[in-house]
């Protein structure tokens, strides 16, 4: 990417930012899974013997699911955004090629 394309908005920098947003989504998914896991364990301690095993079992089942689905959805969303911007860049390239091939007298 040269500076002229950057300064004239022919090329977007957003695809590079989307990768950073993906990793932020991964981090949030992992933190949410940990919060569910520790919340279930803490809830088991508060509930005592009555519902403690259910809270731990629920947390153990739900937290990996939240992490995996969160990472998967972050990846799908990032890929959709990147595809959208790549389509835009490709259309810009096609437009420039067609303008170069057009006869000047027409």
From TrEMBL:
<feature type="transmembrane region" description="Helical">
    <location>
        <begin position="53"/>
        <end position="78"/>
    </location>
</feature>
<keyword id="KW-0812">Transmembrane</keyword>
<protein>
    <recommendedName>
        <fullName>DUF4282 domain-containing protein</fullName>
    </recommendedName>
</protein>
<dbReference type="InterPro" id="IPR025557">
    <property type="entry name" value="DUF4282"/>
</dbReference>
<feature type="transmembrane region" description="Helical">
    <location>
        <begin position="21"/>
        <end position="47"/>
    </location>
</feature>
<keyword id="KW-1133">Transmembrane helix</keyword>
<dbReference type="Pfam" id="PF14110">
    <property type="entry name" value="DUF4282"/>
</dbReference>
<keyword id="KW-0472">Membrane</keyword>
